[in-house]
Amino acid sequence: MNKNNMKVEIWSDIMCPFCYIGKRHFEAALAQFDHKDQIEVEWKSFQLDPTIPEEVKIRTTMAEYIATRKGMDINDVNTMFENVTGMAKNVGLYFDFKTQILANSIKTHRIIQFAKEKGLGDQAEEVFFKAYFTDGKDLADDATLLDLGQQVGLSVDEVNEALQQDEFLKYAKDDIAEASDLGVDSVPFFVFNRKYAVKGAQPVHHFLDALKQSYADFNKDSGFTTFESNDGTSCDVDGKCD
User: Fold this and answer.
1) I need a labelling partner for 138 at 20 to 30 A (CA). Which of 76, 129, 193, 212 fits?
2) 35: buried, middle or exposed (CB in 10 Å: 19+, 13-18, 0-12)?
């Protein structure tokens, strides 16, 4: 990291629709920020449901999965998906929950961790979000991941290395453990200069305010203190997205 740049850390899971929406809100705020060239973004791994088997033998729809996990009526789940789809549309995203394929997200986190080392963390997040929410790709399938990894900008050998080397799994688990230490129980979770936190897909102006305040403090070298947090729509580890 360039010492002249301020870091923004974003804990996120590919399975989280509000993480994709929040990404767009943050990007819109950053585009308006006068010192955007001095902001360094680091994506951090988080898993909403690590209990999903890495090899899913019985495929289920996302609506069925959410209904079972949360004890909801399937019609209520579909209504929730319609609302989230509308929110996504407002930021130029197309969500197709009917074609989503349930998968454990850990393999994508392995690749994201590798991509971060190549300066491609943001590209990896974008490719996997689109693959999951828009294109209905199976993120548990290695052949699919090889193709998506190349879209990120990685070679086939690099994707295979990310999937096979224990160090990239360790990096992902370290992020997840760090989130737990910080008390993060839902995503997206944005941390500005290790001082300010924004929880959820907040409106653009909240992100812009956080950028302005944290950058002003960064210039004064205020260091780490207790988080000041704004809460917005997010997904938690109990499967609740609101």
Assistant:
1) 76
2) middle
